[in-house]
């Protein structure tokens, strides 16, 4: 079998074929007898099932895959083993040195996990008011949030029932070293990740007693976390569907008791993408609930003739196949062409943050009726108010398109040649919202600007997203409804 650092996918294939090749390799690699021996020893020592450890192993391996290059990053290179082995010893001796005995200190109904600099607790603000909630965060939060701070692995739990001792780390060090040479790749980053997950969640769930667990980033779910949560009395672990489930991207290897999906069909591919979810429940968008329906201000934003949902697509995970960026930049060329043909129309391109892609800047450098828009403050996403007032909406692959279709407002996904099936598979409910040629795009935008509706899209709106004005209530209702199901 190929070493993991020698594996490449053929990026000339379709994303579906690339995904099959990648998942097949990950399954075979994670099933190698040498690796299974090491994982079984970890399972025996930590009392975490081999199934959970193997699932998180596969997820970690996938997370090291660089879409744009069609290969894995340098994490597994043998030439890094001496540096990573020393890092391993330093990290875990530091953790053990600053560990302490712990016991249940807090009680709540709901834990909101995975809060960091990259997430916003205010999206769970309404849930926080509906039930007793504790936020697990790596950063200090506002006083209105009851916060359990888990930072830099300080004060991890130590107990006779937790494998957190110097002897274990020494044995694990030598075993990882040995099996790395047997298998021909550096296993220290993988083993470190598995043990860090174990220590983090043994500490958290020994400190907090809660029936329910929820998190924003479905792509940060973990089988080890889920098992430890249930071991300490938790009833249901859950995650919201934050984004469109991208193939070979942020739709892969989701693990949760419940996934609160946007719409009735938006999470239909979870199992095909390596995920293990016991129940998928559509509830709508938690983000839209706060930033549109619960934003207590008058909508005084300008009404654009066309609003484009956009973001910087220069990350390694975006480009899953060779023609991806060609098609991506072509959709901006369509918008530029439209702006030239109709110079009196005002077009807004709404970004999450500042535009970083110089190629997109260049495409619109000579257009006078196109404006790049960013949020005026960090407290709210202005996109929802802008889109509510815009006459027409379009995007390459934004989840906002799903959210507004769920509200009964059409949004078209610009997909030259209908090749962008990494974000938007050619499923029946999606096809009516996809546009593959410029003339089709122009005609559909003109109809929207003139006030015409496409009922073919609207009749399937629940497939995209449920109405989002009461998402928090639906989530809490479902958690209580299925409290004893798992």
Task: Describe the protein in words.
It is built from 18 helices and 15 strands. The longest helix is centred in the middle third of the chain and has 20 residues, at 188-207. By secondary structure, the chain is α/β, with parallel strands linked by helices. The chain is 40% helix and 14% strand. The chain starts with 14 loop residues before the first helix and ends in a 5-residue tail after the last helix. The protein has helices at residues 15-30, 33-46, 50-63, 81-97, 125-130, 166-183, 188-207, 223-231, 286-293, 324-341, 358-363, 383-389, 399-406, 428-431, 438-449, 455-458, 461-464, 471-481; strands at 65-66, 71-72, 106-115, 133-137, 147-149, 208-215, 236-240, 255-261, 276-282, 306-309, 347-350, 370-373, 393-395, 412-414, 434-435.
Helix % is 40-55%
Termini, distance in Å? Answer: 38 Å
Q: Report the total helices.
A: 18
Oligomer: single chain
The stretches of 5 or more residues where confidence is low (pLDDT under 50) are none
- Give the amount of beta strand, in percent: 5-15%
Strands of the widest sheet, in order across it, are 5-4-3-6-7-8-9
Question: From the alpha-carbon coordinates, what is the Rg to the nearest angstrom?
Answer: 24 Å
| Alpha-beta content class | alpha/beta
């Amino acid at each position: 079998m190929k070493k993991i650092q020698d594996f490449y996918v053929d990026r000339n294939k379709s994303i579906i074929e690339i995904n099959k090749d990648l998942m097949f390799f990950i399954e075979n690699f994670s099933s190698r007898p040498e690796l299974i021996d090491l994982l079984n020893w970890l399972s025996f020592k930590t009392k975490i099932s081999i199934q959970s450890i193997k699932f998180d192993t596969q997820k970690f391996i996938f997370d090291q895959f660089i879409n744009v290059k069609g290969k894995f990053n340098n994490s597994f290179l043998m030439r890094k083993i001496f540096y990573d082995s020393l890092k391993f010893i330093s990290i875990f001796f530091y953790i053990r040195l600053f560990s302490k005995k712990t016991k249940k200190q807090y009680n709540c109904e709901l834990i909101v996990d995975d809060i960091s600099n990259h997430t916003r607790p205010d999206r769970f603000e309404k849930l926080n008011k509906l039930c007793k909630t504790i936020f697990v965060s790596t950063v200090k939060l506002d006083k209105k949030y009851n916060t359990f701070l888990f930072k830099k692995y300080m004060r991890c739990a130590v107990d006779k029932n937790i494998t957190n001792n110097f002897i274990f780390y020494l044995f694990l060090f030598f075993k990882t070293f040995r099996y790395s040479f047997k298998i021909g790749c550096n296993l220290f980053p993988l083993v470190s990740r598995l043990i860090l997950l174990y220590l983090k969640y043994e500490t958290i769930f020994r400190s907090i007693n809660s029936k329910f667990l929820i998190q924003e980033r479905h792509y940060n779910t973990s089988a080890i976390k889920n098992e430890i949560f249930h071991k300490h009395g938790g009833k249901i672990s859950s995650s919201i569907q934050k984004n469109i489930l991208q193939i070979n991207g942020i739709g892969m290897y989701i693990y949760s008791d419940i996934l609160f999906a946007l719409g009735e069909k938006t999470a239909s591919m979870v199992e095909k993408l390596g995920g293990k979810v016991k129940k998928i429940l559509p509830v709508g968008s938690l983000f839209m609930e706060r930033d549109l329906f619960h934003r207590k201000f008058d909508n005084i934003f300008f009404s654009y003739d066309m609003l484009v949902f956009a973001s910087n697509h220069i990350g390694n995970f975006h480009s899953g196949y060779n023609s991806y960026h060609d098609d991506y930049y072509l959709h901006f060329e369509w918008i530029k062409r439209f702006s030239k043909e109709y110079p009196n129309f005002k077009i807004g391109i709404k970004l999450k943050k500042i535009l970083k892609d110089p190629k997109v800047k260049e495409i619109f450098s000579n257009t006078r009726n196109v404006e790049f828009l960013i949020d005026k403050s960090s407290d709210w996403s202005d996109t929802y108010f802008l889109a509510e007032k815009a006459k027409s909406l379009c995007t390459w692959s934004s989840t906002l398109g799903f959210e507004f279709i769920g509200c009964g407002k059409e949004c078209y996904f610009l997909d030259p040649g209908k090749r962008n099936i990494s974000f938007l598979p050619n499923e029946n409910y999606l096809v009516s919202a996809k546009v593959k040629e410029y003339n089709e795009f122009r005609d559909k935008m003109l109809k929207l600007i003139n006030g015409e509706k496409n009922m073919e899209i609207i009749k399937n709106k629940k497939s995209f997203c449920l109405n989002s004005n009461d998402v928090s209530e639906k989530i809490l209702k479902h958690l209580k409804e299925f409290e004893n199901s798992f």
